[in-house]
Write a structure and sequence with these properties.
Blueprint: E1 8-12, H1 15-18, H2 64-77, E2 82-86, H3 89-92, H4 103-118, E3 122-128, H5 146-161, E4 168-172, H6 182-186, H7 194-218, E5 223-229, E6 232-235, H8 240-262, H9 267-275, H10 286-292, E7 297-301, E8 305-308, E9 332-333, E10 339-340, H11 342-356, E11 360-364, H12 382-400, E12 406-412, E13 432-434, E14 446-448, H13 450-460
Parallel strand pairs: 1-2, 1-12, 2-3, 3-4, 4-5, 5-7, 6-8, 7-11, 11-12
Antiparallel strand pairs: 9-10, 13-14
Bound molecules: 6-O-phosphono-beta-D-glucopyranose.
Length: 468
């Protein structure tokens, strides 16, 4: 019993969380560049412009822009078969609505992609990962239909420029975050009305469908997936009201996947919109676009599970969109309070496959934890190894025992990077330690953790050897 041949073992990052060089070589500002570091338990602040007395973690991040050769060499040393990265829209169209692409932006990604390919690493590219260009603010970001066309234009440049080199694409990272972290998802205020969020979500769904269709026209070998934030939840109790409350939470999340996988808004969502007096900004031909632009596969992130019920009624709170008001007494939590639930991964894989019958890939999973450098300079992150190992065991059960077609597994943050929810660097996910603190101070040196050798062995044995 082993993982399928050609299984895409690897890691995943996003441009804003690793690159830095936020204003170099023509890059414009993105929504990610306006978020400060969350300090003393306060949430990240989103500033309208860059303020000199504030600290913005993405501006330097881990300096991957200057150190990508070293970083990708380390991924190759671990034996990566696949690497999920994102392109920054603002490197290619600095303002989002520029006439022509910025050649320097394309040149950077040429170097990154060519390097991956030279190591035999299959790139999997997210077109937008939490970094809408600030230049699109004047249109109201994703509230505007204009942004659909601009995104398609940007995507077309990528699809043509990287044709033959990049085959696996994802349109939007965690598209369902429009309901939970709308600023990250598309420049929409956390306090925006439900109508604004649903209009922005509609535009992203139409934009995604257009890009899927275009990608297939440009090259039938292109495989375009959706990326779902795995907000899986259990009902708080067998109380029918808890079951209904949980269902409503799931519906809030799953309608995005329904549209991307089935090409139509599900009835439960249409009815809800009707009750809320929200009229979607549909245009002639949109129904066909959604239908023709369904995805080839589903990718998702999996970190935790929720408990939902009559108290939540489909409402998700907290700036990171994770607060449901219930806790699960059967599972442990991370230092950041995220419920650790490896068995839930098997459940999630079955749930998604049974609902959509599409191939799946886990493109984010991992443990955000503080690491300590020992006196001898090593980092003994057995807790991270254990976390990932438990998840891989459950993923294997889903493949072997349940027959779920899983294409790959890319661990989140194979190298320490800036956390999206808090901006912290000490919330470390990596197999590779980056010697920088939350404020970007330190040598920036890369150090292999204990998990580095462990993951290398996992990959070289194609998941057969999971022991420490
Ligand atoms: C996912 C995002 O939601 O979770 C990543 O796609 C993010 O960008 C990851 O980094 C982990 O969250 P955090 O807040 O720990 O970085």
């Amino acid at each position: 019993m082993s993982f399928p041949k050609g299984f895409l073992w690897g890691g995943a990052t996003s441009a804003a969380q690793i690159e830095g060089a936020y204003n170099r070589d023509g890059k414009g500002l993105s929504t990610a560049d306006m978020m400060t570091l969350a300090e003393s338990g306060n949430p990240r602040e989103i500033t309208g412009k860059i303020e000199s007395d504030k600290f913005y973690p993405t501006h330097f991040a881990i300096d991957h822009y200057d150190r990508y050769e070293e970083d990708i060499a380390l991924f190759a040393e671990m034996g990566f078969k696949g690497y999920r990265l994102s392109f920054a829209w603002t490197r290619i169209f600095p303002n989002g609505d520029d006439e022509v692409p910025n050649e320097k932006g394309l040149a950077f990604y040429d170097k990154v992609i060519d390097l991956c390919l030279s190591y035999g690493i299959e790139p999997l590219v997210t077109i937008q990962h939490f970094d809408t260009p600030m230049g699109l603010e004047k249109y109201g970001f994703w509230k505007s239909r204009k942004v659909v066309d601009l995104f398609v234009k940007y995507s077309e440049v990528l699809l043509r420029h990287f044709n033959g080199r990049v085959r696996y694409w994802l349109t939007f990272n965690e598209i369902n975050n429009m309901s939970t972290m709308p600023w990250n998802a598309g420049g929409i205020s956390i306090n925006a009305s439900e109508k604004d969020k649903m209009v922005a979500a509609y535009h992203q769904l139409v934009a995604s469908a257009k890009v899927v269709k275009l990608a297939h026209e440009i090259d039938p070998n292109n495989q375009v997936g959706m990326m779902y934030n795995g907000h899986f939840s259990y009902p708080n109790s067998p109380d029918p009201e808890d079951i209904q409350g949980n269902e409503e939470f799931q519906q809030k999340m799953l309608f995005y996947a329904d549209v991307q996988c089935r090409g139509v808004y599900p009835n439960f969502k249409l009815k809800e919109l009707e009750r809320q007096n929200i009229v979607l900004p549909t245009q002639e031909g949109d129904a066909e676009i959604l239908k023709e632009g369904t995805v080839d596969y589903i990718s998702f992130s999996y970190y935790l599970t929720h408990v939902c019920g009559k108290k939540t009624k489909g409402i998700i709170k907290g700036l990171n969109g994770l607060e449901t008001g219930y806790t699960n007494p059967y599972i442990k939590r991370t230092q950041w309070g995220w419920g650790i639930d490896p068995k839930g991964l098997r459940y999630a894989l079955n749930f998604l496959y049974n609902r959509y019958q599409l191939p799946l890939i886990i493109v984010e999973n991992g443990l955000g934890a503080e690491d300590k450098i020992e006196e001898d300079g090593t980092i003994q992150d057995d807790y991270r190894i254990d976390y990932i190992k438990q998840h891989l065991i459950e993923m294997k059960k889903a493949i072997d025992l349940d027959g779920v077609p899983v294409m790959g597994y890319t661990a989140w943050g194979p190298i320490d990077l800036v956390a999206a929810s808090t901006g912290q660097l000490r919330k470390r996910y990596g197999f590779i330690y980056v010697d920088l603190n939350d404020f970007g101070q330190g040598t920036g040196n890369r150090i292999r953790k204990k998990s580095f050798d462990w993951y290398k062995e996992v990959i070289s044995s194609n998941g057969e050897n999971l022991s420490i």
